[in-house]
Structures are given as C-alpha cells and as structure tokens.
Specification:
The protein is 59% helix and 9% strand. The protein is an alpha+beta fold and 288 residues long.
Length: 288
C-alpha cells in the first residue's frame, strides 16, 4: 500500500510545528496516529473542527502515557535498578511533555540477575507475563505494558548491555547510547510498521543532549552508524510518504541498509527471510 501524497505529508510535518488550515481532519488524525505525532499536532490546532476530531485520541494517549510514567516512578521508588529507554526515557529527561509522546509500553533495560525481581513485583501488582523472548519479558495489565530488556534490542542488531551500564549516568543511558538505540529501533521497526515520524523526532530531541561525534563513533564500532545517519538525514515528508507496510523487496532493502558492516547486514537480511519463512509456516499450519 502506498503512502499519502506529498501535499498531505507536508501538512502533517508543518502541523507538528505550527498551525495551518486543513480540509480533512480525519485524514490528518489517522496519519498522526500512525506516525505517533498526534500529541505534537494538537496544541497547534486552532479550529473547533480540528479539536473535535483529535481530542478523544489526544486525551487517551495522554492518560496512557501518564499511567506508564506512574509505573516508572513506582519502580524507581521500589529501589530497583534499571535504565529507561526510548519514549519513557525521553519524557523522564524532560525532552517531551507526557501528552506529547505516545507510550504503548515502557522499555526498561535491566540486569539479568534482577529480572526475576522485576517480574515478582509486577506480578504482585496484577501484571501477567505475555511474551518471553531472548531479550527479556513483556508484562501486561490491561492497556499497561512493561517490556523488560536484558538486551536493548533484538539480537539481530546486537548492542552489548555491559558498556551501556558502564556509561549510564544518574539512572539513564548516556545520551549518545540513547541516540544509537533510538536509531537502531527505528531501523528494525521499519521492517514491520514502515517508517514513523516520531522516531526521527526522538532522535532530534536526544541529540540536544548528545555529543554527535561521540555517538557516531560508538555507532560505528557497533556497525550501526548507518542507522543513525539515515534517521537524522531523512527528509520528514519522505518518511510520511513511505509505504505503510513494506513489501518483500522493501524489507530486504531496509535490511541491507540497517547495518554498516557485513555482519550486521547479513543478520538483518537473515531476519527478513526468517520472518517470511515463519509466516509461510504459520499459514500452512492454519490450513492443516
């Protein structure tokens, strides 16, 4: 499925910064939700029609972000050691107001020896295990979700956690590491969802605190320099106009571009093929 045309993409990007007149607010609403920028757009909406179209989702998003931040605060108060990542980290750093940045979950980097302690506390608060994977656990309670990571990303884009802990400051990843993780997550997320505008905004905001050269040096050592540069240099309207669901050839192109060295490229391409094979196996089982 192709993305929106250039005029609509430009309107969405402009609305994240200023008020403009819009003919169809429902189309803007759908596009803003898909790209995670509804919270950035709503304060710039002046028309009653626009506010009516956007407010219900804006209010739901804000309440969910605040609820996730309450979990983050509770775990901090419980004395548990963790490093928040992505959306929850950016809000906690003051780079977004809670209503500006959607949070469908909170991502926490935890040490392997501590993960069972996190599980026990969350289970006692009514959470339940939903997914156990190589990178950790995902736990849900209603619409609340906590993603406990031993590794910051899927093993396909491996980032060793020990140096992240060593470079962390005051319970947060270093800004340079945060930028790398945001960029690598955006590259991996594009396999499934297509590019999202909020990921580029995340990278730009953490860049206010990061040393660009230091971050690129760390990314280069990991084979992820391409992820960082691609996200920061991408034209915002091109992100919005990109395909909603990448096709097979697009997935391979994204796979090849996600890593800056042969090992990372090979793992990303293997992941793209593996996803396709897994889907085929599921469809065959469903027919049997």
């Amino acid at each position: 499925m192709s993305g929106p045309d250039e005029e609509l993409a430009e309107a969405l990007v402009l609305l994240t910064r200023e008020h403009i007149e819009v003919e169809d607010w429902q189309v803007i609403r759908d596009l803003a939700l898909k790209h995670g920028v509804l919270g950035l757009i709503y304060p710039n909406v002046e028309s009653d029609e626009g506010k009516r179209a956007l407010f219900p989702d804006y209010a739901r998003q804000a309440s969910l972000s605040l609820a996730h931040l309450a979990i983050l605060s509770y775990l901090r108060d419980a004395g548990l050691e963790f490093l928040p990542m992505k959306g929850s980290s950016l809000i906690a750093r003051g780079l977004y107001a809670p209503q500006e940045r959607p949070m469908l979950d909170i991502d926490l980097l935890v040490k392997p020896g501590d993960i069972q302690g996190f599980r026990s506390i969350l289970l006692s608060k009514g959470f339940s295990d939903v997914i156990a994977s190589r990178k950790g656990f995902v736990m849900h309670r209603g619409k609340l979700s906590v993603d406990l990571h031993i590794y910051p990303l899927k093993p396909e884009l491996y980032i060793p956690p020990k140096p992240l802990w060593a470079r962390s400051v005051n319970g947060f990843l270093s800004p340079e590491d945060e930028l790398i993780i945001i960029s690598a997550h955006a590259a991996l997320g594009s396999f499934t969802f297509g590019p999202r505008l909020i990921w580029q905004e995340d990278a730009k905001r953490i860049l206010r605190l990061a040393d660009p050269e230091k971050s690129l040096g760390l990314a280069r050592a990991l084979g992820l320099e391409g992820c960082v540069l691609r996200l920061l240099r991408a034209k915002s309207t091109d992100i919005v106009m990109a395909q909603r669901q990448p096709g097979r050839l697009r997935k391979l192109a994204l796979a090849w571009g996600s890593g800056a060295n042969k090992g990372q490229k090979a793992m990303c391409i293997a992941m793209a093929f593996g996803d396709r094979i897994e889907n085929l196996i599921r469809s065959i089982k469903a027919r049997v």
